[in-house]
Specification:
Pfam families: Peptidase_S28. This protein has helices at 52-55, 60-77, 92-103, 129-141, 143-160, 165-172, 182-198, 215-224, 232-245, 264-271, 294-305, 313-318, 323-330, 380-409; strands spanning 3-9, 12-18, 85-90, 110-114, 334-339, 357-362. It is of the alpha/beta class and 410 residues long. A 6-stranded mixed beta sheet has the order 1-2-3-4-5-6, sandwiched between helices. A hairpin with a 2-residue loop joins strand 1 and strand 2.
């Protein structure tokens, strides 16, 4: 029997898999659960997001405890008390999977954490690494594409400063309503480039938005296809339109006050309370250079939610700078899977920690690509990655039953 518990959030899925066995046969059953405060799992109904008082229950520790209680309840109700559990997660869910194995080793025998940036906190990872990685993806696709995007921000700023600049940008970007600020244009473009780098999958997908295979390369092909006299603004708009309108269904774009298409509101709360990931843009980035200030970040969170961030809570709760020692001494049976096309990989575990804490790294992999449904067009490196994961997990289960049998005899 196999029971899958899943919590879906932003670009992540947290899955817990129950794997009972008998000497005669295997059979499976899939059950999906949501992370509290996401989807329809609202503890306080329509009032769940009304105040910091109710949102205070939205945090990683509560989510892990939910999963622990759910697994114990399922195993009891299914008369499967001796069945091993392996947890799976991608992105934030990958962090949850790894942390679950550390916090509840008596409940899960192993974890597969895909694209899990557990090192993206404090100053463990260079703050510019994420946006440097996004930029590297585009530079590798086309140096001209990278330079056009890098130069477009100054061109946008210069145009917006002109008397009719925002009106012209409204027309160029096919805004559903007249623009009142350049910020919305920057955010619209920024999101398109970042999310496209994350989901630079080798096959057509619709995880964030419907996109072709290798969408970064497709974006750069659009930019490089313009004549030499075309403006950078026109080129980046056309490239970003691939992300927002690959299906060609959109007649205009809601650049201001658009819907929360990716369910980010809950994550913004978590980022303002526990998931504090400092990020900057360096000179090597295709985005304008930027810095990070804990003080300014705290002020923004106070304005938005009325709370101050616990800036160092995650490293206090789950392990700090020497997380490798934590994993080596206290962890085991964890697979960290990362693809170097995914900018979140820079905050992930990229080297083996021990014989049972394994890093599987692929050069062309994107954001938890190994968790996507298999297709006939999957490249060989992706098939091999999944094969390795299955082989390692099978080894955990194969070891579990002799250990259980030996324990029962004692």
């Amino acid at each position: 029997m196999k029971v899958t518990l899943s919590g879906l959030l932003l670009i992540l899925a947290s899955c817990l898999t129950l794997l009972p066995s008998s000497e005669l046969f295997w059979f499976s059953l899939n059950v999906i659960f949501q992370h509290r405060f996401y989807g329809e799992s609202m503890p306080f109904g329509n009032k769940s997001y009304k105040s910091a008082e109710t949102l205070g229950y939205l945090n990683s520790q509560q989510a892990l405890a939910d999963f622990a209680l759910l697994i114990r309840s399922l195993k009891h109700n299914l008369s499967s008390e001796a069945s091993p559990v392996v947890v799976f997660g991608g992105s934030y869910g990958g962090m949850l999977a790894a942390w679950f194995r550390l916090k509840y080793p008596h409940i899960a025998i192993g974890a597969l954490a895909s694209s899990a940036p557990i090192l993206q906190f404090d100053d463990i990872t260079p703050w510019s690494s994420f946006y440097d990685a996004v930029s590297q993806d585009f530079k590798e696709a086309s140096s001209n594409c990278y330079e056009v995007i890098k130069g477009s921000w100054a061109e946008l700023e210069a145009l917006s400063a002109q008397k009719e600049g925002l009106a012209e940008l409204s027309r160029t970007f096919r805004a559903c309503q007249d623009l009142h600020s350049l910020d919305s244009v920057w955010e619209w473009l920024w999101s398109a480039f970042v999310y496209t780098a994350m989901v630079n999958y080798p096959t057509e997908a619709n995880f964030m938005m419907p996109l072709p295979a290798y969408p970064v390369q497709a974006m750069c092909k659009i930019i490089d296809g313009f004549p030499s006299g075309a403006s950078k603004i026109t080129r980046v708009f056309a490239a970003a339109s691939l992300y927002y309108n690959y299906s060609r269904a959109e007649k205009c774009f809601k650049l201001e006050h658009g819907p929360d298409a990716h369910g980010l509101h809950g994550w913004n709360w978590q980022a303002c309370t526990e998931m504090v990931m400092p990020m900057t843009c360096s000179e090597e980035s295709m985005f304008p250079t930027s810095s990070f200030s804990y003080k300014e970040f705290a002020e923004d969170c106070m304005k938005t939610f009325g709370v101050k961030p616990r800036s160092h809570w995650i490293t206090t709760e789950f392990g700090g700078k020497r997380i490798d020692l934590v994993l080596k001494r206290s962890g085991g049976n964890i697979i960290f899977s990362n693809g170097m096309q995914d900018p979140w990989s820079r905050g992930g575990v990229l080297k083996n920690i021990s014989s049972s804490v394994i890093a599987l790294v692929t050069e062309k992999g994107a954001h938890h690509v190994d968790f996507r449904s298999a297709t006939k067009d999957d490249p060989e490196w992706l098939k091999e990655l999944r094969r390795q994961e299955v082989e390692i997990i099978q080894g955990w289960i194969d070891q579990y039953y002799p250990d259980l049998k030996r324990t029962n005899k004692e």
